[in-house]
Amino acid sequence: MSDAVQGAGAKPITNDMINHPPHYTQGKYECVDVIEDVVKELKGMDAVDTANAFKYMWRWPHKNGSKDVKKAIWYMMNLAKRLESEGR
Predict the structure, then answer these.
(1) Which domain holds residue 67?
(2) Is 2 inside a domain boundary?
(3) How many domains does one find in the chain?
(4) 35-77 pLDDT tens trace
(5) If residue 85 lies in a helix (H) or strand (E), which one and from where to where?
(6) What burial class does residue 87 get, using C-beta atoms within 10 Å of its C-beta: 0-12 exposed, 13-18 middle, 19+ buried?
(7) Do residues 50 and 72 touch, judged by C-beta distance below 8 A?
(8) 3-state secondary structure of 88
(9) 13 assigned to some structural domain
(10) Cβ contacts of 27 within 8 Å, gap of 6 or more
(11) DSSP assignment, residue 2?
């Protein structure tokens, strides 16, 4: 958050849970930037399922552990079922 939004003299926010939550900012890249690149050639639900699976796999060690892995699997299975039903 910029100083203008925080107000003059406000302490800087060190853990921005809205714009840059720590479970998405581990390592060299931020998750949202990588997802944008990963799904740039996908459309519709293919992009949604891929992005969500990627997001949950990215954050599992830093947030919800096995729950996030199970969510990623759900999105991957949803994608696989749709691809199979469409003969792709």
Answers:
(1) 25-85
(2) no
(3) 1
(4) 999 999 999 999 999 999 999 999 999 999 999 999 999 999 9
(5) helix 66-85
(6) exposed
(7) no
(8) coil
(9) no
(10) none
(11) -
The residue written with tokens 């060690």 in the block is 61
Report yes or no on 35 lying in a domain: yes
Q: For 19-40, write each residue's pLDDT tens digit.
A: 776 666 677 788 899 999 999 9
Res. 8 pLDDT band, cuts 50 70 90 = low
Distance CA 73, CA 57 (A): 9
The CA distance from 4 to 8, in Å, is 7
CB 55 within 8 A of CB 69: no
Residue 9 domain-assigned (yes or no)? no
The residue type of 29 is Y
